[in-house]
Amino acid sequence: MPARGSKAARIARAGRIADKLARLYPDARVTLDFKTPWQLLAATILSAQCTDERVNMVTPALFRRYPDPQATAAAELRELERLVVTTGFFRQKARSLKAAAKQIVQCYRGEVPASMDALVKLPGVGRKTANVVLGHAFGIPGIAVDTHVRRVAYRLGLTGQSDPDKIEADLRELLPPEKWTAFSMRLILHGRRVCVARRPRCSECALLADCHRKGVRTAL
Fold first, then answer.
1. Catalytic site residues?
2. How many angstroms separate the CA atoms of 76 and 204, rounded?
3. How far is CA 94 from CA 18, 98, 118, 120, in A?
4. What is the mean pLDDT of residues 188-195?
5. 57-78 pLDDT per residue, tens
6. What is the pLDDT of residue 219?
7. CA 83 to CA 108: how far, in whole Å?
8. Domain-wise residue ranges, the chain
C-alpha cells in the first residue's frame, strides 16, 4: 500500500473518487444545448457568471438568427447585445462573440479550431471554455475548472491551489487523460447537488470516506 500523502496514494484516492463519481453520475455531460462546435463555444462564453439554464433559454433565438461564425461576425453588435442581455455582462459577451467569430472566419476558414493554443487566442476564451469545447465538441480530453470544480477539488484534498490553471494541472497529474472530461463534469454536478458552497451535504455524500473536508466548517 502506498504511503499516506505520497503521490501514489493521491493517485489511488483520486481514482477511487473518480470511480464513485462515475457511478453517481454515469451520463454526465455538459448541460449547455448545442449542435455545433461554434454553438458550444458561444454558449460557454455566455455561461460566464450565468447559469446554464438561463443560457439555454437565450441561445435558441440567438442561434436561429446567427447560427455560425460567419453570421455572428457580420451581426450588428447592438442586436447581439439585445439577444444575450439576460445572461449578464451582455455588452462584453456580445463583443466577445462577435470578435471570436470574426477571428474564426479570418484565421480558420469559419471552423472552430480544435486545439488549446488556438482556442485561448480567441477573444473571451480562457482554458476553462477551451476545455469544455475540446472535450464535448471534439472529444479531446480536458479538465474544465469552474467555481464548482475549484471548490470540490479543494475540499477533497485533490489540490491545494486556488488558481484555476494550477488546479487543472494538479488534477491532470492524478488521472489518465481518458477520464479528464467526464471527471470535471462530474465534479461540477456534485458541486451543484451535494458539495454546495454553503453547508455542504456531507452526511449524504458518497465521497465522504475519501474526502479531506478542507475548509469545511459547517455542513449538513
1. 128, 146
2. 50
3. 37, 6, 20, 17
4. 95
5. 999 999 999 999 999 999 999 9
6. 62
7. 26
8. 7-28+143-210, 37-111
CATH T-level assignment (fold) for domain 7-28+143-210: Endonuclease Iii, domain 2 (1.10.1670)
How many other β-carbons are positioned within 10 Å of the β-carbon of residue 163?
11
Rounded CA gap, 112 and 23, in Å? 33
Integer angstrom CA distances of residue 158 from 3, 205, 216: 16, 16, 15
As assigned by CATH, the class of the 37-111 domain is: mainly alpha
Question: Which DSSP string corresponds to 7-48?
Answer: HHHHHHHHHHHHHHHHHH-TT----S--SSHHHHHHHHHHTT
Per-residue confidence (pLDDT) for residue 215, from 0 to 100: 77
CA distance 25 to 135: 17
Q: Name the CA dihedral angle for 216, 173, 148, 127, rounded to a multiple of 10 degrees.
A: 140
Work out the number of other CB atoms within 10 angstroms of the CB of residue 8. Answer: 11
Number of CB atoms found within 10 A of residue 182's CB: 20
- DSSP summary character for residue 125: -
The whole-model pTM stands at 0.91
Cell numbers found for residue 142:
480536458
Q: What cell does 56 get?
A: 439555454
End-to-end Cα spacing for the chain: 32
Sequence-ordered list of residues with C-beta below 8 angstroms from that of 62, at least 6 positions apart, any chain: 42, 80, 83, 84
Could you tell me if 32 and 52 are in contact, meaning their C-beta atoms sit under 8 angstroms apart?
yes
